[in-house]
Amino acid sequence: MKKNPKVDGNSKNRQLDGFRTEDSGEDLTTNQGLKVADDEHSLKAGDRGPTLMEDFHFREKMTHFDHERIPERVVHARGFAAHGEFEAYESLAHLTKAGFLSEKGKKTPVFVRFSTVVGSRGSGETVRDARGFATKFYTEEGNYDLVGNNMPVFFIQDAIKFPDLVHALKPEPHNEMPQAAGAHDTFWDFVANNQESANMVMWLMSDRAIPRSFRMMDGFGVHAFRFINEAGQAHFVKFNWKSTLGVHSLVWDEAQKIAGKDPDFNRKDLYEAIEKGDFPEYELGVQIIAEEDEHKFDFDILDATKIWPQEEVPIQIVGKMTLNRNVDNYFAETEQVAFHPGHVVPGIDFSNDPLLQGRLFSYTDTQLIRLGGPNFHELPINRPVCPFHNNQRDGSNRMTINKGQVAYHNNSLANNTPAPVSEADGGYSPYQEKVEGRKVRARSKSFDDHFSQAAMFWNSMSDPEQKHIVKAFSFELGKCKEISIRKQVVDMFANVDLKMSQEVAKNIGVEAPMSGASLPEKTSPALSQTNTITTPMTRKVGILLAPNFNDKDLKQVLEAFKEKGVHYEIISETQGILKGSTGTEMKVDETFSTTDPVLYDAIYAVGGPVINRKFAKEGARYIAEAFDHYKPIGATHEGMKWLHNSEMRNQPGVVTAEDMENFTDAFLEAIREHRHWNRKVD
Ligand code: HDE
To answer: What mean pLDDT is predicted for residues 279-294?
Structure first.
């Protein structure tokens, strides 16, 4: 297996060259290079006396420490990132002159940061929320940032409403509660009074909002952008990332428990996968609409609260991104990376989506406060890999040492350089869209339909997915204290599906709405997660093992796991080595106190001939939790005792057997399915 491959020296690392330092083995010095003789005692007047002001080493060390934090991102504060590479499958030159897409096999280094949106930097990761999916392509023509989410739509249509949305969604201002959650009055008050949010709220109540892993979710650029080809021809484009592991989610009860048992659940999963060489992969897909077809659809293609259903505008897969290297330093890279939807390259341009237009202002502005000034592009993680020159100078934290006397344009002293580059030679020149109109604060009528696509989302869900949505609404609204807010929201969602809103109304104790909008029955099968890829690869199985376990049979199952890329951990009562019935030794990875069933995709109960009361109790709990969360359960030998006479035994995804050959295949198949929704749980 590949282990955290180092790719120093090649293009992937160029943006960091010259900035990395390995401090171990070196002398300790101050920041001025002075060797330090003692780092354990502050300078005092006598060994029981007061500390002296003159202790410059103490003051330097403490001052640096006092300033170690920078303001966290106002949204997307909690994130985790990795390096990788994008490879184009084919030339897209007929659509775009972007170099990184115009040649088959062309490779471009990337840096991707995943995030939750609402919570603070230290908040839990398995909360109900959208996930940020921001990609920086270090192209030869400059950095291109695709700053997307794991949901293809957004709450609002115009950027001017973003501060209102975020104020409503963040913890309430009087008591700073709740952390990292939309389940409170101000958020739902915003929803009910800003009904353009309906489609996004359906996504937020769905399983997409609690992804099993950053590796198992899709990404979306959300807005319409433009591709421009060499001939200057434009096409509208939407960007989609498709995980090669498929889209998979947690169940809500599990997600809440994980937030306590392991608040780092998603980042650990990504970090460990990359360390093991199981590199996450996402294919890039584009949806293309010709300029002349702009008004051909029953939604406005510039409205960020709408998808372009892929049944109407197919997704063309154009390349693959592989994340293959963890960061060396979280702060220097993940915390200081600065994304911006306005970081584009020739061949990619904007549309007039009013949400996108506002973002083009916001991202530089936010970096100024977060990263302390206008030179954040010089931080190693943000530097382009191609040369960059201009007449910008000075400012806080300037690192470049510009030589020479000329810092203006036009000039004769430097032969009029740095000189602009013509479009033909690669200079960026905006698409000359014709724009005409009165100056108005208004929105196009074509943005008015807030419910058709929300209803299409609901209609496209499978039965279990619909049940999860009803439960999610009932949880979230049940947390609202104001009954009037609960009522306004169920009335609003009666326009999406009357039965759905009536069920929610019953659960949260408000009068059920009697009518809603009557909308065309449209579906988009691609919206359901039941149509995603399923594979046992990288699933994590918790194996319950006790002394004298049947080692021959276990070995056979473990070999099959290895072959299929299934991961496992041995769980027992105490740490150390366990001996099997014929002497095989197994190292215990976790104990009942260090881990929990919610942290596994499947449980395999092997047990052993003699288990004590505590083991029996924990084993039963592991199986019961896994059962309630619809997870695959395998039980052989003594492990089967836990399922004896139990109603669980003949339920879908519960595999028990004396015959190991049938067992292994059936268990692997159950693991591949991920969750067994037709199991009788409630
Ligand atoms: Fe952002 N958003 N956003 N956003 N956004 C930020 O920039 C903003 C929107 C997204 O990992 C901020 O550097 C406005 C949509 C991601 O570093 C800030 C509007 C989408 C990230 C900001 C939006 C996103 C951010 C905060 C409405 C999906 C994290 C810190 C017009 C397409 C990037 C920062 C990272 C971060 C503003 C809406 C995605 C304040 C004004 C829609 C993935 O600039």
So the answer is: 98
632 and 676 Cβ atoms separated by less than 8 Å: yes
Residues 6 or more apart in contact with residue 489 via CB below 8 angstroms = 188, 191, 192, 473, 477, 480
pLDDT bin (cut points 50, 70, 90) of residue 15 is low
76 given a catalytic annotation: yes
* Percent of the chain's residues with pLDDT above 70: 97
Q: What is the predicted pLDDT for the residue at 21?
A: 81
Residues carrying CATH 3.40.50.880, the chain: 534-673
Atom of ligand 1 nearest to the CA of 367: 13
CB atoms within 10 A of CB 396: 11
Q: Which residues contact 613 (CB under 8 A, 6 or more apart)?
A: none
**CATH 2.40.180.10 domain locations along the chain:** 80-378
Measure the CA–CA gap between 526 and 528, rounded to whole angstroms: 6
Mutate to test the pocket of ligand 1, among 359, 360, 369 (most ligand atoms within 8 A of CB): 359
Query: Which residue's CA is the closest to the ligand 1 atom numbered 11?
Result: 113
- Is residue 370 within 8 A of residue 379, CB to CB? The reply is no
The pTM of this model reads: 0.96
Q: To which residue do tokens 């021809």 refer?
A: 233
Copy the structure tokens of residue 615. 């083991």
All CATH 1.20.1370.20 domain ranges of the chain, comma separated, are 460-530
The yes or no reply on domain 80-378 and CATH 2.40.180.10 is yes
pLDDT on residue 660: 81
- Among 444, 472, 365, residue whose Cα is nearest residue 73: 365
Active site annotation includes 324? no
- For a mutational test of ligand 1's pocket, the pick from 147, 156, 330, 343, i.e. the residue with the most ligand atoms closer than 8 A to its C-beta, is 147
Residue 299 DSSP label: S
Q: Which residue's CA is minimally distant from atom 23 of ligand 1?
A: 359
Q: What is the DSSP letter of 269?
A: H
Token couple for 222? 């959300």
CATH class, range 460-530: mainly alpha
CA-nearest of 620, 618, 602 to 670 is 602
The band of 5, judged by pLDDT with boundaries at 50, 70 and 90, is very low
CATH architecture assignment, domain 534-673: 3-Layer(aba) Sandwich (3.40)
Choice among 13, 57, 76, 223 that is catalytic: 76
Q: How far apart are CA 136 and CA 280, in angstroms?
A: 16
Q: What confidence tens digit (pLDDT) does each residue in 365-374 have?
A: 999 999 999 9
Nearest residue to 497 (alpha-carbon basis) of 533, 444, 456: 456
Q: Backbone dihedral region of 46: left (phi > 0), alpha (psi from -120 to 50 degrees) or beta?
A: left
pLDDT tens digits, residue range 394-452? 999 999 999 999 999 999 999 999 999 999 999 999 999 999 999 999 999 999 999 99
Sign of the CA dihedral running 366, 368, 371, 374: positive
